[in-house]
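Friendly challenge for the regulars: who can give me the structure tokens for this chain first? No prize, just bragging rights.
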Amino acid sequence: MKKLIIGVGSVGAAAVSMALFGTGVAAADDYAGQTYADASSAISDSGGTAVVATRVGDKLPQDECLVTNSWGGSFLRDIGGGEMGFADGEVMLALNCNGDHATATRPGASVASPEGREAKAAADEAAAAEEQELAEVSTPNR
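First reply, four minutes later:
Bragging rights claimed.
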């Protein structure tokens, strides 16, 4: 009987905890991993306004910066005429402008992250293609 009471109590405590604090399921970020140019275009196409909330680094032009996080602008602001209102349609963007992937001499996304791995793979592929092209060029003998 004690085990039954303890079991029911544990289940009840878990249910109350989930009701108060949620289940901890993360929401997908629609713009993370995109360049600012692509994300702001998609936001504009959906009728919203892209707002840069935070920016890290200065190695890239803003349009080439990577979006690391986005969220809706859910705060009050002056909407004109001395009235306060919610910032409807604004999407706040956090940008990483350090570069596509980190190297020993340049900051950027960690190659342990999906974005960093993808960028490093693309850079390695471009370097291999350039090396192949240079190898195919023949130098005339004298």
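The radius of gyration is 25 Å. The chain has three helices and five strands. Your move, everyone else.
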